[in-house]
Structures are given as structure tokens and as C-alpha cells.
Amino acid sequence: MARKPGGVVVLDFGAINAQMAAKAIRQLNVYCEVLPYTAGVERIQALQPKALVYQRGTACGERTLGRDVPTATAALGLPVLDLKDADCDSATLKAFLVGKCGLKQDWTTEAFIAETVEDLRAQIGDKKVLLAMSGGVDSSVCAALLHRAVGKQLTCVFVDHGCMRKDEPRQIAEVFRDGFGINLISVDAEGRFLEKLKGVVDPEQKRKIIGEEFIRVFEEEARKLGELDYFVQGTVYPDIIESGWEGGKAVKAHHNVGGLPERIDFKGIVEPVKYLFKDEVRQVGEALGIPAVITNRQPFPGPGLAVRCLGELTKEKLDILRDADAIFREAMDAEGWAAKANQFFAVLTNVQSVGVTNDARTYGYVICLRAVQTLDFMTAKVVPLPIDFLTRVAGEIATRVPGVNRVAYDITNKPPATIEWE
Fold first, then answer.
1. Are 370 and 417 in contact (CB under 8 A)?
2. 3-state secondary structure of 130
């Protein structure tokens, strides 16, 4: 949606972070797209660029890749900035793109919204659209854009599988149904999910059961709604780049790149934010009036709290985890530590220990807290939270949450650990 011809093409030669130059260019309000260095002349010409940037790695602190620039690109007759020999900073990029090439700095949030809404109206016409709402920023921004474009033709389906964080189902309904007037169907499926998960302790089996049951619930709701023409996906630009787009280097596969499974029958797929980076999606969300509780929502695993509640899942254990997690998150926000962590959460371990409450012996669960800093979520460092802060939070959790009498803090980086526990 809202691709802009006449911008910049970044040719990636296999750099560790192919997105670095593109993000820096976008921050100058200049539109760009990333293509692998193997892209043919016709593919580059199709984007009608006015300049090329070679991302070969050295200038951004990466190793020199040693590949020759394809001579075919010389036939394009475009000005070239080779980041092997130049600094990947705002001043250098601006001097080249704006000063030398005369590119306009018109890639703005407001322009994106206006152009995308117009494109959506043209693409969808009078057809019906279905969006599976997760509550994350990507699907939320898609919902707001589609609602602005086609109004009541859009139906969103949100499935509460019982593994959401505290108050999230209510927040989603209040923001989108009550605040935006979006046609949102909320499905309370906690009971059926927990029944399917009864006795299951293996994390991979949990994931498979939850994933399959989501599909079953979604299919049931889709059948109730009757004929639907378009399905909305919250694909973002890094999903495409990291999945080895157009023969490029694959970092990891994303399930939403390549379309829907064959079993779901729609006339077309709509991906309103597929050319945006994550920070741009958040900016669009803010401009559309989506509250910060949604736009600043941290990455949350698809199975939700199911992979932060170790061992067999029960409503009692999930409620304990929800309360403990909420106390930790509120404290992080209140004391300014949330801004210094990219992800933070509580884990309900499958360990119980002896404690004392009101002079009586208790046997309660151990909660573990985790907070990390990361740029790409491939590696992460522990946030050095002060011991007095951790002591206060631990005391609140252990005294306010029934069933908990001990709290620990995970101080392991990634690697060797992962960010999530399961």
C-alpha cells in the first residue's frame, strides 16, 4: 500500500542488518525500498528510483563483504552512494539524497495515511473485509486504516484464548469497538482452550494446540459471518526482508509472508502496512489516534501467557501470572524503567517453595521477572534494575498475589538463554 515511485533503492549485498540504511533514509522522510544486490535491472527500474544506495556493510560497523557491484546497474545511469566508502549517518545521506539528487522529503506519516486510505478504497470497492485482531500494534493499525477506508464493510474478530495479559481483552474492545466504532466481534474461548490444554506440559505441544484451536475458532466465526471477500494481514516490511525476499538472504521465515494457507478461501489478501518498518507502524497508529497502551505494546508471543506459565495450564495459574505481571509492568512504568527495556514480563515457574505469611506456613509458587534490552531480538542484554526496586516489586507481588511467596530476577543474557522461557 502507498508505495511511492521516484524514491531510493537500497541494494543489499548480504549485510548483517540490511534494514539499517533503509531506516536511516526513511527517517529523512525519503521513501526507499530494499532489494538484494542480485535484483535485475528491470526489477529496479519497476520502482522508478532516482538514486541507488549500496549497503555493503563496512560503514555501519559490519564486515566487508567483498562483492563487486553488478555492472548492469551502471546502465541505469543513476547516482550511487556506496556505503562501503561512506558513513551511514543522517548528514551523509541527506547531503547525497536531498542535496545532490534533489529528492523530496515527502514520505510522511500523514501522507502515508491519506494515500493508503485512498488505495484501500480503490482495491476493496464495496466488498467485505475480515481482520483477525490480535491486539498487537500491526493488526490494530490495519484495523484503524481499514475502518477509515471502508467503514462498516470491515469486521474484526478478536479471540480471547484465556492467555492474554491483565485487562487486554477489555482494552481492545474499548479502543476499537467503543472508541473507533469498529465492528468488532470478541470471542470468549478461554474454556475451550484450557480444556484442550489440560494435562499438557510440553511447550511445543502447547503452541501446536493453541495454534490449531485459533484456526478452528476463526473458521467458525467466519462461517457465521457468511461470504467474505478480503482477509487482512498485518505483514510489515522486516517480515518480507528477513524471509529472503526476491532471492535475498533469509534471516528467518515469517508465517505471514507468502499468503494464507490454501484452506482459507478469500478473493484477496490486504496488507496495508507491508512496506512499513515497526517504528513507522507505531507512528501511524499514534497519528490515527490509537492509544499508547496499544501502539507501545511490547512483542507478545502468539500463545500469550501460555509460554510464560510453565507446566500444565490452569485458570488459577494464569490468573496468578496475570496479577504478578501487572504489578511488575505498573512499577516499570511508574519508575521510568519501561523506557529502558525493550521487553519485560513475569514468568510463573513450575516451582513451589515454603514461605511465611501472617506467622503461618505457606507453600506457594515462585515468580521470575525478566527485563531485556535489544535492538533486533536476536541477542539481548539484561536490564540492570536496581536491587531496591526489585525488592519493592518482589514484596508487592509476594504479599498481594495469593499463591505466590517468592520472586526471583532472571539475569541471563541472550545467548545463552532466550528472551522467553519456553
1. no
2. strand
Question: What is the 3-class SS of 89-103, one letter each residue?
Answer: CHHHHHHHHHHHCCC
Q: How far apart are CA 271 and CA 278, in angstroms?
A: 14
What is d(CA 296, CA 282) in angstroms, rounded to the nearest whole number?
A: 7
Element housing 12 (H / E):
strand 8-12
| Domain span at 14 | 8-100
Scanning 136-184, the segments in alpha helix (DSSP H) are: 137-150, 168-172
Residue 305 domain flag: no
**271 and 333 both lie in a single domain:** no
Please, are residues 154 and 143 in contact by the beta-carbon 8 Å criterion?
Answer: yes
Q: Which residues of 300-337 are buried (b: 16+ CB within 10 A; e: fewer)?
A: bbebbbbbbbbeebeeebbbbbbbbbbbbbebbeeeeb
**Rounded CA separation 356/398 (Å):** 10
| pLDDT band (50, 70, 90) for residue 254 | very low
Read off the C-alpha cell for 258: 507468502
Q: Are 284 and 141 in contact (CB under 8 A)?
A: yes
Rg of the chain in Å (alpha carbons)? 24
Question: Where do the H-state alpha helices sit in 226-314?
Answer: 237-242, 278-287, 292-295
- Tell me how many domains the chain contains: 3
Does residue 250 share a domain with residue 332? no
Domain match, 216 and 120 both: yes
- The 3-state DSSP class for residue 272 equals coil
Strand segments, DSSP code E, in 267-309 are 268-270
213-241 pLDDT, tens digit per residue, is 887 888 888 888 887 788 888 888 877 77
pTM: 0.76
- Would you give the DSSP letter of residue 382? E
Residue 26 lies in a domain: yes
Does residue 272 share a domain with residue 160?
yes
pLDDT at 261 over 50: no
